[in-house]
Each structure stands twice: as structure tokens, then as C-alpha cells.
Amino acid sequence: MAQQILERYIDGASSIHALDARVKLVLAVTTIVCASLLPAGSWLALLALTALVWATIIASSVGLLLILRRALVALPFLAVVVTIVFSVPGQPVFTVPLGFVTLTATDAGLLRFFTIVWKSWVSVQVALILTATTHFFDILRALGALHLPKIMVALLSFMYRYLFVLADEAQQLLRARDCRSAALDGRGGGSVWWRAKVTGQLVGTLFLRAFERSERIYVAMLARGYTGELRSLNARPLHPSDLRFGLGGALVLVLITLQAFLG
Amino acid sequence: MTIMAAEPTTEHVYERQAISVHLRDTSFAYPDGREALHGINLTIGAGEKVALVGPNGAGKSTLLLHLNGVLGALDGHVSIAGTPVTRATLRQIRALVGLVFQDPDDQLFSPTVFDDVAFGPLHMGLPEAEVRQRVAHALAQVGMSGYESRMPHHMSLGQRKRVAVATVLSMAPAVLALDEPSAGLDPRARRGLIELLQTLPQTLLVSTHDLRMVVEVFPRTIILAEGRVAHDGPTDQILANAALLAEHGLELV
Amino acid sequence: MLDLLERALVLALHIPDGFLSASVSALFWVLTLVCVTFAVRRTNKVLDDRQVPLMGVMAACIFAAQMLNFPVAGGTSGHVLGGALAAIVLGPAAGILVMTCVVALQALLFQDGGIVVMGANIFNMGVLTTLLGGAVFAGLLRLIGRQSKGLVIAGFAAAWVSVMAAAALTALQLIASGTAQPQVVLGAMLGVHSLIGVGEGLITAAALSFLLATRPDVLPAAVTDVLSGNARPVAKGQVLIGGLAIAALLLLLAPFASAAPDGLERVALDLGFIDGGRGPGAASPAGVLSDYTVPGLAGGISTILAGLVGVLIVVALGYGLAILLRRRSAARSNRSVPSSR
Fold first, then answer.
1. What residues does each domain of chain A span?
2. Which of A263, B142, B200, C150 could form a disulfide with C145 if both were Cys (CB 3.0 to 4.6 A apart)?
């Protein structure tokens, strides 16, 4: 049930899907770092980054529109950042009358606002294309190969595995609650306090189920020879063509960033 | 970590058939005081297929957990293939006895099928090539070849149960202990499971409520009641004894 | 069902990429790495090998618990973030690791929060909430624990405080990055989260009393001991740390209360009084907390804020250190399956 919503991987046979997860991860992070370093008003560099990202999305055949639609997740945060349009000093561009006060937008404020919005928009698309073309367990392996501590890799992989199981259990709990939440006309099904308490009990129930499941998993691990040490197969060496792609991509990203600072 | 050089590979499974499960006067109580087993005496011959029946709470799962020392006093009252289950032999025992839990979501704790089936061999300290070969062999045995990179949450219950069996087959055990393998399966998946159990060469000890499966697969049946062996004998005799079945709330549906 | 999940995932505290300056992102990556490394060491030292599956499943549980929402008013709904709950039930080190996984997975898998800014997000929601929530809970429980409502009050306060602190720090990070107008964002974040915190507090308190009623053995011995009156007397150091934490929070609220009402007005009237130090369009990696002022703020408020960030970080780190070192022997031995390997 939950898997249809939680699964972010989109199956495909493109060269982007086939690219080594380590290369994809490093390139994705490099792109986002480069974007975050760009000064306000680096339109050319942002345009170049966007072109690169879109080319990747099109090459992966997961659908540009789908990625753009999912990229809306960062939208609510614009409400916070829109304030700088009016607070950064500069030449007035337009004014917004709000009853007793009037807000004045400045050119510098607008410049900074649109830079932030664009950076954020590109970064979200990069993260989206990474997860759409890479199985999460491949990302985890890549993180392990890049020396994330073993325990963190293990915790993330347990978490990913049981996300689906516990999300299903959470939905069952919600459904059971909703089935018994009949309300008569004009009576609002209890106070906010009472609703919070019921929800707290659901959280407690879910917690207990998770706790008991972790005990059973531990037994299952013991039964198969677990002694507290986590083992995994060694990562395969990087394919030369993947390595070349990664190095080339990183070089392009660095050049784009340098251009913004020098140009 | 100790690498068990003497660990038999898949080809040696059949040699180890000359062994048995032995429980001598085994009792167990949970830390909260709940008594689960009282003086169990039990001997199972090599290659025997034995069903463990009885109501919920009779101690079936607890008994299975004793076979590889997950529960129990580790004082040698349980022995597998002549090796007493003690703290010192625990790693050998865990390779000898494959335990499959009722809920495959407990058994399959890795992100992919491959990782899960490889978990046992990896923790036995086997080299990579051998691990890969064992995973391939175990998945072929349960008819799940080609599912290596699948994720458990993308599979049906029947498929997950099969993979759960593969996760212990990859350790090349001599004894398989399964907890209610047919529970919750649809008729087709249940039929597939019965056929799988019939082909497995290992000694089988399987707890179940599914008496029709018992008739098909297991020549010997043990009835457990309140932590004691209430009856132990050929399946056909037990199922013909209406009074015995009624006494223990068993029904041949 | 889709919108249920979407609502659960869209949390005001998950900063996306692009909204923090490079220097703020880097600073909080460093702080986060220090804390997480410490928590990893701590957990490895305890060497209870059932911790790994426990924490992994608990991280999934916190994620799923965020889907359990309840209608508050006007179409909005409340749900739990879980930092304080994780810290109370699992202890601070495990709490940090569990919440780190939750934040990391939300960013990696669902783009809920960015990658470069993940250090800040983990610090806000994974480190600060667990350390502060755990500290407030432990302190209050010691003071009022023997009363019947002790657990409820301490759980509520810990959760509320942790949400407020996370919101305050998030706002300060945005301000320090020059991506938001200071008074407005601080006022808005604290205002909204003082309500969200109530939901968090109620759910946390209810979940804790549910656990106490049904399976008290899953709660840490430190909690049940206090409730049953078996705890050692309150140590002075703990009262001091708890007091400091609460004082820091009160301080945080003070500028919010004084600045918020006239915030908008001032923006409108004297545009340009803020951010005089930098030219328009300049890159924003200004020194964070340089000369004890937050860039982009008028002197007085700026100094208070900078001091507060410092106090918060010091209190959080200090408490974490103290607890991690002290809990070395507080093994949790009350499990249903005996260890036998």
C-alpha cells in the first residue's frame, strides 16, 4: 500500500540508470554544492546548470514534467524568503500597499530572491533525478563505499526496509481510528486535546509494535550467525568509463562555478 | 573473526544427513516468569520430516528457538548432529540449524533479496565467490532465481516466504525449523510451499496448524500441549484418533 | 491518502538547498559531524548488538509516526516530529542517530530538506531537539516526577521546547545566511511553532503515558525509577544544566516578543536600516557570528541573537557530553528475550 507513494525509483534502462551509483552521488552533491556557492545574479551559470540537469533528466527518460512537478516540494519555503525582496536595500522597483503599511521591493532584493529560488529549484531537481534513477540500496552502498560509518549505513538500510512495513501499520491504525470516528451532526468528535491524546496513543502503539518487531528481527539475525559485527561484500571497482564520466562531469561543474566568479 | 575452515559447502549437505535433533529434559521459562517448556524429551532422526502441532501458546515457537540456541540455557540439554548446544558451539550450531520465522518481514531485514540470502553465509565468514554461489543455489532451490535485486516490499507474501526459506538454505543447514510456513498463504502459494517442502533433503521440524499440509508432507507428528509433548507418533495414526484430535482442539479441515 | 503523506512530509523546518549560505551550511555540517560522530562512538561503546536493529526500526517508526496526524483547526493538522520522544525513550546518543537517519532519509529519498543544507537540518531536528528535549525532560521529571502528572508535564514541556528551539535555530540560520528578513522570519517561525509545539507536546505526552501504562519496561530505567521514587536525589549539575536550557529558551522568546509587533512596520518605514554592511547583490557567505553579531541585523538584537545561538549550542553540546559520559553503565536489562550469543 504505502509503497506506491514511498517508492521514488522509476525503472528504466537508460545510461543514467546504469551509471555507477558512486559517480551519480558524487556528481549530484557536487552540482548542489556548486549551485550553493554561486553569487547572486549568476544567471549564466544557473542557466548552464539547469541545462545540464535537464539534459540528464531527458537522457534518463523518467520524464521532465514528472521531475518538475515533484520539484514543487520546496515551494512552501518561498514564503519565508520572499521577505528579503522588501528588506534588502537598493533601488525601489515596485510597492505593495498592505493597508496601513506599504512594502517597497528593491532591485537588489529581487536579484537575491530570484537567485535563491533558482538555486533551490535546480538543487531539488538534481536530488530528484538521483533518486529516480538510483535504487536507494545502491545509494546506501555508494555511501558505504564513500566511508560513511558502517553503523549509519546499517541503520539507514534497516530504516529503508521497515519504512514500508511501518507506514502500512500506521495507515492501518489511522483507518481503524477513522472507522470508529463517527460524528453526529453539530458535534465535533471530541476536543483538540482528546484528538491529540488519541493520536499519541496511536504513536505509542506504533512505537511498541516497532519495538517488538526489532526484537524479532534481532532474533532472526542471531539465528543466522549475527554476532554484533555487520559484514558486507566489498564494493566492486569503479568501471573506467564511469570514472571518466564522473571526472568529466565534475570538471564541467567546476568550470561553470569558476565562470560565475571570474566572468 | 574465526573463519570456519571445516564448514561444509553445499555439496556436503547430504553427508550431514546422518545426524539428528536431540532434546533431553529441556525446560524453559521466560524472564517474566511465564513457563513455556516443561521437561521436553525428543529425538529426531536424520532426514525425518516432523510436524509440530498444538494450540497457540503451547510452546511450539519457543521449542524451535531452542534448536539453535537463541533461547535456552546453553547447558548441553539440546544437541544437534551430536554437537551439544553450548556457548562454545553456538556458531557451528547456527550454521547447522536454519530457523525460518513466521512473519517474513521479520526474517527479511535487508533492502534486497540478495543481501538477505547472503547475510548468513557472510556472517559464517565465507569468501565472496562462495557467498555468491550459495545465494544463487539457494534461490534456485526455492524457485526464486532472478529476484536478487528485488526488494521484499515489492513481493507477494508467498514469494517472501520462499525467500525466507532461501535465507537459511544458503547456510547449508542440516536441520530446517519452520514456524507456521503456510499461515496466511493463498491456495496457490500454499501448494507451491508444500511442493518445496517435499523436495528439501534436510531434516524438517515444522510448527503448523495446517493439518492437511501435515498429511501431505510429514510422516511423523508431535502434539505439544502446555509446554509438554502430549503425543508423538506416525501422522496417520494421530489423525485417525478422533478422541486425541478433539482433546487438543485439532481439526482436519 | 497521497495528500495525507504530502502534508506529513511538508514540514516548515526542512530547509531546502539554496536557502542557506555556504558558510552557514559548512558550520552546521561541522557541528553535526562532531555530534553524530560522538553518538556513533557512544553507541559502539555500549556494544549492545540489539541496538542496531532497534535503532533502524525506530527510525522507520518515527518516520511513520509523522504520518499519524490529527485535525487541529481550519484544515491544518498536527503531528509529531519525534525528536524529544526519541531522546526520552532511546536515550540521547541513540536518539541523535535515529533522528539523523530520519532527516537524512527524508532529504535523500523525498527531497524534504536539501543535501548541502542537511548538516543544518540534522542539527536542528536531530541534535538540538534530542539533546534539549532529553535535558528538559530529565530535569523536569526529577523535579516533579513523583506527582502523578509528572511524566505528562515533563514530556509535554520537553517536546514543546525542542520544537521551539529547532524553529528558532532554523530562523537564525536563515537570517545569518541573508535569505530572510530577520524580525518577520523569527516572529513567523516562533509564532507558528509555538502552536505546532503544542501538538508535538500533547502527542509526546500521550504516547509516553500510553507506554507507561502498557509496557513500562520499554521506558529507560532512569524514567521508571523516578516515577516509582527509586531515583537518586537530583544532582546540582543537572538542575544547573536544566535551568540553563530553560533560561536560554526564555531569552529566545524575549526578542521575539519585543521585535515582532513592530517588525513589519519597521521594514516598511525605514527600509535600509538593516543590512547596511553589505552591498546589494553581494554573495552571502558572510562570517557567521563574527564579532558576536549576526550579519544583517541591527546591533542590539543582533548581539542578543548571537549570544543565544552560542548559549544554545554550548548547552546542547555540554548536556550531550555529560549525559553520554554518565550513562555508560545505564544498561537496559529489561528485555523479554535473553541475550545468548
1. 10-143+237-262, 149-180+194-232
2. C150
Note the ipTM here: 0.91
Pairwise CB contact (< 8 Å): B71 & C336: no
Kindly report, residue by residue over A75-96, the tens digit of the pLDDT. Answer: 777 777 888 888 888 888 888 8
* Closest chain C CA to residue A30: C116
Give percent above pLDDT 90 in chain C: 28
Residues of B in contact with C338 (CB under 8 A): 31, 71
Confidence of residue B184 (pLDDT cuts 50, 70, 90): confident
In chain C, the number of structural domains is 1
**For residues B231 and B238, what is the distance between their CA atoms, to the nearest angstrom?**
8
Residue C276 lies in a domain: no
CB contact under 8 A, B111 and A227: no
Give the model's confidence band at C142: pLDDT under 50 very low, under 70 low, under 90 confident, else very high: confident
Q: Please provide the distance, in angstroms rounded to a whole number, between the alpha carbons at the two ends of chain A.
A: 52
Quick check: helix, strand or coil at residue C258? helix
Contacts of A165 in chain B (CB under 8 A): 105, 153
Return the pLDDT at A18: 92
The CATH H-level superfamily of B21-247 is: P-loop containing nucleotide triphosphate hydrolases (3.40.50.300)
**C232 shares contact with chain A (CB less than 8 Å):** no
Q: Are strands B175-179 and B97-100 parallel, antiparallel or unpaired?
A: parallel
| pLDDT confidence bin for C321, thresholds 50/70/90 | low
Chains in contact with C via at least 3 Cβ–Cβ pairs below 8 Å: A, B
In a domain, C337, yes or no: no
Which residues of chain B have a CB within 8 Å of the CB of C337? 70-71
Distances (CA, A) of B8 to B13, B91, B96, B142, C188: 7, 13, 10, 21, 67
- Residues 6 or more apart in contact with residue C131 via CB below 8 angstroms: C87, C92, C96, C316, C317, C319, C320, C323
- Residues of chain C found within 8 Å of residue A77, distances taken between Cβ atoms: 15-16, 19
Question: What is the gyration radius of the CA atoms in chain B, in angstroms?
Answer: 18
> What confidence score (pLDDT) does residue A100 get?
75
What 8-state DSSP symbol labels residue B81? T
- pLDDT tens column, B11-42: 344 344 455 798 988 889 888 888 889 989 99
CATH assignment of the domain containing C112: 1.10.1760.20
State which residue of chain A sits closest to C94, comparing Cα positions: A155
Asked if C80's CB is within 8 angstroms of A203's CB, the reply is: yes
Q: What is the pLDDT of residues A26-47, one digit of tens each?
A: 999 999 999 999 999 999 999 9
Residue C257's domain comprises 2-262+286-328
